[in-house]
């Protein structure tokens, strides 16, 4: 059973920083792309950033420059460094990973339970 567990969320003042982590655990053969998404109250889930298994990042336009995604492939972990946080960054942040499923012989998208981030003004 593959699980994704996020950590690092919390309450921070505007202008502050947080670093989110997400560890993929279980029987893992391969992980392709990993990423972070967020969902603010009353809004749809949106992309924050993704990173390929080769380490190439991709950011949503509004996050570029303030957020940095990285991964530690041997540790099956993806990080999101968030700087210069704004109240509008308040949301639940979800980890996402494409994990190879041996039974189906393809990559399946897996999600974590989410970690809340609250930015106070």
Q: Secondary-structure map with pairings?
A:
Blueprint: E1 3-7, E2 10-13, E3 18-25, E4 31-39, E5 46-51, E6 57-59, E7 67-72, E8 77-82, E9 91-101, E10 106-111, E11 115-120
What do these coordinates show?
By secondary structure, this protein is mostly beta strands. It is built from no helices and 11 strands. Strands 2, 4, 5, 6, 9, 10 and 11 form a 7-stranded mixed beta sheet that branches.
Brief summary:
With 121 residues, the chain is mostly beta strands. The protein has no helices and eleven strands.
| Succession of helices and strands | EEEEEEEEEEE
Question: Which of globular, elongated, flat, extended, rod-shaped describes the shape?
Answer: elongated
Radius of gyration: 14 Å
Distance between the termini: 40 Å
What's the quaternary structure here? Answer: single chain
In total, the number of strands is 11
**Uncertain regions: pLDDT < 50 for 5+ in a row?**
none
- Total of helices: 0
Q: What percent of residues are in strands?
A: over 45%
Mean pLDDT: 96
List keywords for this structure.
single chain; 121 residues; mainly beta; 7-stranded mixed beta sheet; elongated
